[in-house]
Amino acid sequence: MVPRPNFQVLSYNSASGVQVGEYRRRKFHRKAISGCSACKAKRVKTATPNLNLIQHFLTHWHRIFQIPFQDNIMSLSKSDPLIRSTVLAVAACHLRHVSPGVLQHRIAEHVQQSVALRQFQKVLDTPREHMSQSDVDALFLSAMLLNMIAFALPEAEAVHDATAAMSLAFSSHEDRLGWLDLQAGFRPLLLAFDVYIEKTMEFIGPLFFDDERSGEHWDFTMLSKGLDRIPPRWVQIFELDGLGFGCDTDGNTPAAVYRAPATFLAYMKDVETIRCNMFKAGQFPAKIGLAFRALLFDRDERALWLLGYWLGIMCRYPSVWWCQRRAKRDYSAVCLYLGGLQVVNKPGSEGEQWRELMQELYEAPLARDARGVQVRSTRTGKEV
């Protein structure tokens, strides 16, 4: 005979008093990663998928984020729902990237990205007077991390990552610039929170942009206002001679449209191919305005060249999971598209300028050493 348990359960079924209820053993039930059958029937959410993602990004931190392990990011992810959801979204995207074809990973990526974007929008909708410096820091850090997801090829396109027809240079889809729109949203974000930017850069800069060897601090809101860094042929082909020094990048003149992206690329074209410079180069979408985007959508040859040159710079980092596929595919597509336009056969000096530009475009993926000299291999040191 099985002995009765040595504890009692009180039951308040009677209004006149209490009585001792019978002990009932819990019925055996099968357990699963997604929850037991009872939880599934009641649609009870379990935390196991999140725990798996947490374990994944802790184990593969450097490979996922390409930055040294940061205690402050970990602390923020515990206390700030926006940082937590964004980190989980990046981890889910990486998990899908390294194990393509697994349905559960695709679902996790979709769910986590949806949660992160909702949290991001919630913070954006918060009245400015109710936001603190730490809130703005979290917002910009999340924007940096979400840009990784935006640049990574989605599963549907990753299957055909070598197909130029899927690229913005050839695609006929109306949303072919969608990934760029999310990244370009960083620019209005900078303008909206300009009073917080200085301290926010002090927080974000050491995480992504500082060169540990030189101690250089990067201010990616900075643009050179002169033409000294821009090659003369760029000045001519992009009509920058009448360059204005204002901040308007949405004007109708070529100088207003091409100034910021051309100056940014002139600064980045020969920087050393190391980890911190990858994040610097990744800020190119924040330098384009609505007028430049419209030209890209219409496949303007000069706008495509600038975008292609930037993609070529991003190709210098082939071991970075979130940029390697899109950068390689879209860069090759831009080269193919411009080659099909036969821009090098334009008459007179314009054709000569385009021949030089196309040669530069073809050499854009070549890594640079510390002196800015091209090296034949794009695989550099341990920092990349």
TrEMBL record:
One Pfam family in the UniProt entry: Fungal_trans_2
Source organism, top-level taxon: Eukaryota
InterPro entries in UniProt: Fun_TF, Sterol_Uptake_Regulator
Molecular functions (GO terms): DNA-binding transcription activator activity, RNA polymerase II-specific
PANTHER family membership: STEROL UPTAKE CONTROL PROTEIN 2, ZN(II)2CYS6 TRANSCRIPTION FACTOR (EUROFUNG)
Name the record gives this protein: C6 zinc finger domain-containing protein
Provenance organism: Lophiostoma macrostomum CBS 122681
